[in-house]
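Chapter summary example.
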Amino acid sequence: MIEQKLIKQARQTSLVAYLMNRGEQLKRVGANYVLKEHDSLYIKDNMFVWYSQQKQGNSIDFLMLYYGMKFDEAVSELTGTILPTIPQQEKHKPQQPTSKADNEKRVLAYLCKTRGLENHLIFALIKQGKLYQDNKGNCNFVIFDWKENPIGAEIVGTGDTRYKQITIHSGYGFHQTYGTPTEALYFESAIDLLSCYQMFQNKLTNHILVSMGGLNSSVIHELKTTMPHLNHWLCVDNDIAGNNFIEEIRQNIKNIHTFRPPKNFKDWNEWLLSNKQ
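The structure predicted for these 277 residues follows.
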């Protein structure tokens, strides 16, 4: 019979540290970690939640579920392993616009003339500190966490060559909140987000619109954990990648909806430009 103090010790063992020591590939998502092979499996300290499997528990439960260990094997494994020290999570530091240009001429020309976005939407973002032009002429859509602390940017090039970069890799994305949100809409880019809002702004009055900066499911899981009362809508592109992403998310999250452009348009900005013409 296993001593109760060993069982307690095993349950309280840091699952994050154990997995690091075992060589598992982890990535940080907000205050949590996820396994790179399973982005719906969230781990924090000695606890885990696996959304796609609808399972949760402590370190012992995880080893039994994930590695198929028996109870006594899991206790022995967790109490007999020399664990590494986990680096303390750094607090998000505000994104400093060290490369900010002294004007937004290229950003305005690109977003308003090339991408068809209305001037007042872009001026509002600039005034709110949510958009700026860097010294290379790129658009920087500032990413805030859910407590509205600036932590990074979605960078979009304004030249002939399409360029896109996310300055952080986490469960956050550029977002806009309107009213008291009851619905969350997820887009592949900030420009698609703004294109959709421009066309449906009279109806998007109690919504939060989020750019995932691509097809990044961790953004959905992070917001779903933070604001579980919201209804969630996928507003991704009409292409193979978008279709596959929807199927993947539906396997992990029940009752998620879709809202997409007409099938003859690849994305929201393409539809917006067609309407303007």
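To summarize the output: The longest strand covers residues 38-44.
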